[in-house]
Design goal:
The protein is mainly α. The chain contains 3 helices and 2 strands, in the order ββααα.
């Protein structure tokens, strides 16, 4: 599997051992035309997105905010 990363092609050279049940679950998630590596990459991206959303929700619920104009002034922007 080759994947574009930072303008360069990245060649897959690692193997991951999976239990038969994990292999079956991953195969069920895989869409036609995509490799299992692509599927894992998609799952990682989705996980990162969920973690970011969770973190932003936490900040929104518990963060202390000041108006943008005041922040710019304090930062000298």
């Amino acid at each position: 599997m080759a994947e574009a990363k930072g303008g360069q092609m990245e060649i897959a050279n690692k193997r991951v051992a999976l239990t038969p049940s994990t292999w079956a679950a991953l195969s069920n998630i895989k869409t036609p035309g995509k490799s299992l590596g692509d599927t894992v990459s998609d799952l990682i991206a989705e996980h990162q997105k969920r973690m970011l959303e969770r973190d932003l929700d936490e900040i929104d619920a518990n963060g202390q905010f000041i108006p943008w104009e005041k922040a710019k002034k304090e930062l000298g922007l």
